[in-house]
Amino acid sequence: MTTLRITYSKSAIGYTERQKATVRALGFRRLYETIEHEDSPAIRGMINKISHLLTVEEVETGKSRSKKV
User: Fold this and answer.
1) What is the tens place of the pLDDT at every residue in 8-28?
2) What is the DSSP string of 2-60?
3) How many Å separate Cα 47 from the centre of its chain?
4) Shortest CA distance to 3 belongs to which of 46, 58, 47, 40?
5) Residue 59's beta-bridge partner residues?
6) Pairing state between β 2-8 and 54-60
7) Backbone angles phi, psi at 15, to 5 degrees
C-alpha cells in the first residue's frame, strides 16, 4: 500500500475559494504542515487541482507486524 506525504508549501492567498476549500479538505491548517494520506483517486484528484501549492512524496508502507504484549 502506498501513502502520500503531502506538504502545504505555498500560501493560497490570491487563489480562488475553491482552491482554498480543497486545501482545507485535505486537512491542512497552516503553511508548511505535512500530512499523510492513503493513496486513492479522490486524494490524487484534490492534489492535482492544487499541485502548485503542494509538495508530494510517495511513501511505501508495508504490512507492519503488531506485537502482542
Assistant:
1) 999 999 999 999 999 999 999
2) EEEEEEE-S--TTS-HHHHHHHHHHT--STT-EEEEE--HHHHHHHHHTGGGEEEEEEE
3) 7
4) 58
5) 3
6) antiparallel
7) -105, 170
52: amino acid identity, one letter: H
Cell of 66: 503488531
The C-alpha cell that represents 65 in the structure block: 507486524
Q: How far apart are CA 38 and CA 46, in angstroms?
A: 13
**Helix 41-49 × helix 17-26 angle, to 10°:** 140
Unique residue bearing C-alpha cell 506485537: 67
- What pTM did the predictor assign? 0.83
Place of cell 504542515: 33
Which residues share a beta bridge with 54? 8
